[in-house]
């Protein structure tokens, strides 16, 4: 029991209440040393740290205490002693002087404040708009999907007279490097005789490069390059003949081969789509 | 334009229909002449205030009115505004000591002499002026002047009395603390004029009251109680000539002249838009005072602001009439149970002032009352009706006239006017100034003060339990930056 009390540490007072020392024949009863807390006198010069004083709400001086027989005793803080703290650390330069009217500088102070507010408002609106549009535009097509819509073709790989076919947006894309003879031949064709009248120069940006979607306008087969009666393309399905500019000359197709949107980037590259 | 003339014609026709043919004009004038003097006649017949300035600068002013009693007093340009932090409370202390005997009449001899005349001695101290006045029979006027001169020049300032008064003043402070409206206004000044001498309370801090010595009080008297800053005012059955003779006899002593260069000057007091909240949830009601910076005494805009205050009106729960009040704000207050009472105020000092309103309300309706009161200010700037303005002008005229009942009030009016304006402004002039206010001109002034100019200067304070109050709310203002000391 006693050993438990000795090892109980902070619980000793509570434990020892249940245990009492029994004097033995040889050892007298040693009374437990009474721990009386030393009285710590209140040092009035040191600021008292309590919840109120730490939050700045304690009465600082000017306490008026009253005690009487038939009224409650009270300690009160008189309102005269409440001093407004000095806020000069927060004041603007114009209103630092306590003996100058604040009216004179009021316009400039207000103007500055309103200007800062307006500027911050504009900036915030701009940022907000950007953030929102970024989030919403993330719902639109992603980069890899967008990349599928364009194709970049290196023109130096295509020799003169040759037609190269690429897969673009699921359709064949014909890029033909035309010879000068072909160009002049196509330029000389009488437009009024064509089923779908279009001058060659209207269908190309640079005359030596003609870029076409290789889908026959009749029923969608893929024409064969460098075939047919007109030195252009021949569709084997139903016998449509196209010329070197992709215009329909003979056969059932109603329209010329489609010219997609393309751009020449530099001398050597064209981006279609 | 056309619409207005149609309306006027229509209303004239309506009136003719309602009241039938008007009685003959001759009958009407007869009735009028038999009655009492008209308002304008009365104003003109008020005796003129005569002012004489003595050699030492003392102004002697009086209004003779053939009455058996008179009030004679000294109004001094001294108050808590002239004190600094160390001497705050000296004026109030002096007022207490003034009644405790002079060198010629020590102890209670002074009071006994006043009482033996059957006279009343009184005084007050405010932020910018101190006054001592005696109400007595007219025939005792020379004696009264002598008593006043004794009081002002020869105050005994006995040490034993000073020590006794300390306790009395501290007790008075404790009692004043329970008058929450006054506490509110003290806090309002403390925050509106923070860092300046107008922030001081009139009574001073307890530390100063415990610390002020005879020397402090004597030096206060020495600096401030001087002839050029005093007005000897009188009203009642006295004659101005006799008053001046008595003044020349008693008020020309050496103590009343400034020594050398020691004329105190007033520095301007900066107004700070700020807020102070003294929260005490044990109190049942909240006292709120909200003010913007107003003009000083001598500014003619004061008339405009007083008319504006008359439009805003007052209210407290004892008013009958329910929701049918003439003041729109009062109607709102009743309808939505916003407050227990409210009143607008226009306090002026020599170069600045506070224009605002004070209300007492339940903690939960503070927010709503603030909103409505500020909304009323905004409404004043844009949409007052002509009938409202006319009513307010008449109310103000009535108040100015009714205020001057009795020789004491008249004497005080003389004293304070001479200190504030340098001359007594007669009721006729007030009436004229009020009459010339046109509906639009005063709106411009009111707007300048209450709406555009002062958005950044607002002082709000409340004492008592506090709900969620947002003092930053000012309905038509774009924003209220600068309600924190800026």
UniProtKB/TrEMBL annotation, chain A:
Rieske domain location:
178-271
Entry-linked PROSITE patterns: RIESKE (PS51296)
Question: Record's InterPro entries?
Answer: bc1_Rieske_TM_sf, Globular_prot_asu/bsu, Rieske_2Fe-2S, Rieske_2Fe-2S_sf, Rieske_Fe-S_prot, Rieske_Fe-S_prot_C, Rieske_TM, Ubiquinol_cyt_c_Rdtase_Fe-S-su
Q: What is its main location?
A: membrane
What keywords appear on the UniProt entry?
2Fe-2S, Disulfide bond, Electron transport, Iron, Iron-sulfur, Membrane, Metal-binding, Mitochondrion, Respiratory chain, Transmembrane, Transmembrane helix, Transport
Q: Other notes on this protein?
A: The Rieske protein is a high potential 2Fe-2S protein.
Identification of the protein by name: Cytochrome b-c1 complex subunit Rieske, mitochondrial
Organism of provenance: Taeniopygia guttata (Zebra finch)
UniProtKB/TrEMBL annotation, chain B:
Is this entry keyworded Transport?
Answer: yes
Q: Where in the cell is it found?
A: Mitochondrion inner membrane
**Domain Peptidase M16 N-terminal: where?**
59-205
Can you give the residue ranges of the Peptidase M16 C-terminal domain? Answer: 212-395
Question: What does UniProt give as GO cellular component?
Answer: mitochondrial inner membrane; respiratory chain complex III
Q: Which GO terms describe its biological process?
A: mitochondrial electron transport, ubiquinol to cytochrome c
- Membrane topology per the record? Peripheral membrane protein
> Gene3D superfamilies per the record?
Metalloenzyme, LuxS/M16 peptidase-like
Provide the alphabetized UniProt keywords: Acetylation, Electron transport, Membrane, Mitochondrion, Mitochondrion inner membrane, Phosphoprotein, Respiratory chain, Transit peptide, Transport
The yes or no answer to whether the keyword Membrane is present is yes
The molecular function terms in GO held by this entry are: metal ion binding; ubiquitin protein ligase binding
Query: What is the protein's quaternary organization?
Result: Component of the ubiquinol-cytochrome c oxidoreductase (cytochrome b-c1 complex, complex III, CIII), a multisubunit enzyme composed of 11 subunits. The complex is composed of 3 respiratory subunits cytochrome b, cytochrome c1 and Rieske protein UQCRFS1, 2 core protein subunits UQCRC1/QCR1 and UQCRC2/QCR2, and 6 low-molecular weight protein subunits UQCRH/QCR6, UQCRB/QCR7, UQCRQ/QCR8, UQCR10/QCR9, UQCR11/QCR10 and subunit 9, the cleavage product of Rieske protein UQCRFS1.
Q: Which family does it belong to?
A: Belongs to the peptidase M16 family. UQCRC1/QCR1 subfamily.
Name of the molecule in the record: Cytochrome b-c1 complex subunit 1, mitochondrial
Q: Which organism is it from?
A: Taeniopygia guttata
- What are the top taxonomic ranks of the organism? Eukaryota, Metazoa, Chordata, Craniata, Vertebrata
């Amino acid at each position: 029991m006693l050993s438990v009390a000795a090892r109980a540490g902070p619980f000793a007072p509570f434990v020892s209440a249940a245990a009492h020392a029994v004097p033995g024949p040889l050892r007298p009863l040693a009374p437990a040393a009474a721990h009386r807390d030393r009285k710590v006198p209140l040092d009035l010069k040191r600021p008292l740290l309590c919840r109120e004083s730490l939050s700045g709400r304690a009465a600082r001086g000017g306490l008026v205490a009253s005690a009487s027989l038939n009224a409650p005793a009270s300690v009160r803080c008189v309102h005269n002693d409440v001093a407004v703290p000095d806020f000069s650390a927060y004041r603007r330069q114009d209103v630092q002087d306590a003996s100058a009217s604040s009216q004179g500088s009021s316009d400039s102070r207000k103007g500055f404040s309103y200007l800062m507010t307006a500027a911050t408002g504009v900036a915030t609106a701009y940022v907000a708009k950007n953030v929102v549009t970024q989030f919403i535009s993330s719902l639109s097509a992603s980069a890899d999907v967008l990349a599928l819509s364009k194709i970049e073709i290196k023109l130096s790989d295509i020799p003169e007279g040759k037609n190269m076919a690429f897969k673009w947006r699921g359709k064949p894309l014909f890029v033909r490097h035309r010879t000068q003879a072909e160009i002049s031949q196509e330029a000389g064709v009488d437009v009024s005789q064509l089923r779908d009248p279009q001058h060659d120069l209207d269908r190309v940006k640079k005359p030596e490069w003609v870029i076409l979607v290789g889908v026959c306008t009749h029923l969608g087969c893929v024409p064969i390059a460098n075939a047919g009666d007109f030195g252009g393309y021949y569709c084997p399905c139903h016998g449509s003949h196209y010329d070197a500019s992709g215009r329909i000359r003979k056969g059932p197709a109603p329209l010329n081969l489609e010219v997609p949107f393309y751009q020449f980037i530099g001398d050597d590259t064209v981006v279609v789509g | 334009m056309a619409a207005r003339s149609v309306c006027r014609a229509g209303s004239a026709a309506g009136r003719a229909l309602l009241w039938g043919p008007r009685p003959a004009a001759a009958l009407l004038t007869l009735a009028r002449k038999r009655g009492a003097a008209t308002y304008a006649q009365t104003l003109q017949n008020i005796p003129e205030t005569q002012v004489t300035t003595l050699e030492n600068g003392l102004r002697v002013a009086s209004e003779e009115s053939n009455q058996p009693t008179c009030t004679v007093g000294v109004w001094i340009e001294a108050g808590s505004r002239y004190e600094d932090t160390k001497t705050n409370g000296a004026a109030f202390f002096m007022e207490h000591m003034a009644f405790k005997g002079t060198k010629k009449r020590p102890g209670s001899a002074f009071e006994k002499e006043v009482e033996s005349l059957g006279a009343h001695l009184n005084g007050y101290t405010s932020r910018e002026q101190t006054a001592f006045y005696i109400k007595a029979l007219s025939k005792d006027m020379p004696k009264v002047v002598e008593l006043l001169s004794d009081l002002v020049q020869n105050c005994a300032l006995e040490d034993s009395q000073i020590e006794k008064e300390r306790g009395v003043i501290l007790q008075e402070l404790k009692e004043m603390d329970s008058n929450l409206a006054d506490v509110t206004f003290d806090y309002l000044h403390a925050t509106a004029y923070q860092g300046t001498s107008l922030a001081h309370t009139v009574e001073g801090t307890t530390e100063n009251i415990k610390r002020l010595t005879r020397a402090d009080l004597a030096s206060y008297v020495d600096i401030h109680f001087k002839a050029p800053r005093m007005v000897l005012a009188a009203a009642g059955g006295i004659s101005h000539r006799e008053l001046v003779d008595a003044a020349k006899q008693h008020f020309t002593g050496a103590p009343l002249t400034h020594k050398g260069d020691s004329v105190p000057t007033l520095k301007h007091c900066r107004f700070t838009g700020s807020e102070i909240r003294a929260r005490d949830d044990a109190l049942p009601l909240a006292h709120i005072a909200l003010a913007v910076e107003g003009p000083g005494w001598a500014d003619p805009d004061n008339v405009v602001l007083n008319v504006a205050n008359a439009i805003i009106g007052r209210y407290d729960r004892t008013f009958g009439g329910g929701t049918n009040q003439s003041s729109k704000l009062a109607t709102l207050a009743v309808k939505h149970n916003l407050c227990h009472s409210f009143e607008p105020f226009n306090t002026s000092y020599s170069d600045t002032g506070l224009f605002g309103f004070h209300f007492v309300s339940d903690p939960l309706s503070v927010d709503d009352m603030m909103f409505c009161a500020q909304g009323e200010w905004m409404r004043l700037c844009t949409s007052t009706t002509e009938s409202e303005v006319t009513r307010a002008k008449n109310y103000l005229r009535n108040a100015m006239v009714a205020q001057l009942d009795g020789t004491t009030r008249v004497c005080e009016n003389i004293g304070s006017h001479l200190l504030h304006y340098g001359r007594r402004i007669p009721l006729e002039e007030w009436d004229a100034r009020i009459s010339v206010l046109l509906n639009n001109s005063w709106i411009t002034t009111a707007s300048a003060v209450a709406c555009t100019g002062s958005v950044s200067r607002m002082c709000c304070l409340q004492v008592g339990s506090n709900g969620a109050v947002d003092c930053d709310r000012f309905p038509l203002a774009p924003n209220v930056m600068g309600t924190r000391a800026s």
